Amino acid sequence: MARQTDAAQPLAAYARAPVLLLIIGFLMLQPLSTDLYLASLPSLATVFAVPASKVQLTLSMFVAGFGGAQLVIGPLSDRHGRRPVLLGGLGLYVGASLLCAAAPGIDLLIVARFLQALGCCSAIIIARAIVRDAYAPADSAGVIARASSWLSLAPLLGPILGSYLQVTFGWRAAFVVHSILGACLLVAVMLRLPETNVHKNPRATELAGLLENFRLVLGEREFWANALPGALSYGAIFAFISGSSLVLIRVLQVPTAWFGYCFAFGVSGYLGGTILCRHLLPRFGQGATQRIGATASLAAGALFLAGVKLGAIHWTLVAAAMFLTMGAHGINFPIAQSGAVTPFPQQAGTAAGLMGALAMAVAFLVGTVTGATFDGTLTPLALIVCALGAATFASVRLLGAADPQVAR
Asked: Which residues belong to any copy of the Major facilitator superfamily (MFS) profile domain (predicted)?
């Protein structure tokens, strides 16, 4: 097996472009789009005089838009190239973020969040496809793990910044920051990113070609062996993304300004997980490393539920459970993103889109259930996280991901 390395360089054609830095920036956009305003969720319910379940729609509709768009953006980038689709998506993201900041009511905010998701989706999908375009297949998991280590700074620092933005300026400030970040990425793409898709498929967006690509990707066991555990693992951390502010602020009475630090501690587990992933890959290979991550997911969920059932109702339990769950995700997700796309050099955008759509479908379901089952206790959240940890473990054991092979 080819050795994974943190020092992997882009292929010669892209050596002059800051490919890794741009990939990190694109991947950061999604966690910042959610985590930066988490501390504002309880306030939104008060400001707009709506129940928590209505406020949760600002998260759930973002996830729905993000998931659905991946089925379109991936094939579009396979046909027309990464660069034009990315430029259009980032432009939409900036406009939608400004609309969020100006929204006079919760209904328009929900619609604007849906539009924001469509733009954000282009950055994430194309970041994954660019990894396949610009790096050797043997290096892709290591590259994503390295990018994910830097990516963890976004969910690590985002909730802290978001807490202070909420306390100092109110909920609209987070969306102003989103628009500034989107504009910076848009300028960077215009100035420094070359086109990386050298295998454009003119039939990628035709119905027959689209269905054929879907059939090819979805028919591969290797795709499911990576994408399904990755989606379930993402669902586990999304349970905390959608439920932690309500649990910590409303149930456990953590001050809003302190919420960001609690969430950041949990996210530091993700940083540790990605670093651990980078060290495990060259030693054990992709399949064994994925099994380690899945076992960690199961253990994290089981310990959280056990703590709640034993009466350890304290903010430290929630923070520790987030730390362990996100640490496991830091191992699981880089492998899932790489393994789901690597076998498909000519359908990289489609494969990335399908994998992302699956993850977002799981997240949408998890976010909806988390909001609907909130009862003023920690029990529903603990049950959801434990169930997803067990499902991640079972999917890895049943499907058995292997080390990636170069596509036919």
From this structure: 19-408
Give the DSSP letter string of 102-165. H-SSHHHHHHHHHHHHHHHHHHHHHHHHHHHHHS-GGGHHHHHHHHHHHHTHHHHHHHHHHHHH
* The one-letter amino acid at 315: W
Q: From 238, 115, 105, 223, select the one nearest 172 (Cα to Cα).
A: 105
| Residue 100 or 155, more confident | 100
Task: Give the torsion sign (CA, 117, 122, 127, 128).
Answer: positive
The CA distance from 94 to 22, in Å, is 17
Is residue 6 scored above 50 in pLDDT? no
Q: 29-40: buried (b, 16+ CB within 10 Å) or exposed (e) per residue? A: bbbbbbbbbbbb
What type of residue is 209? G
Report all structural domains of the chain as residue ranges with CATH numbers, in order of start.
16-399 (1.20.1250.20)
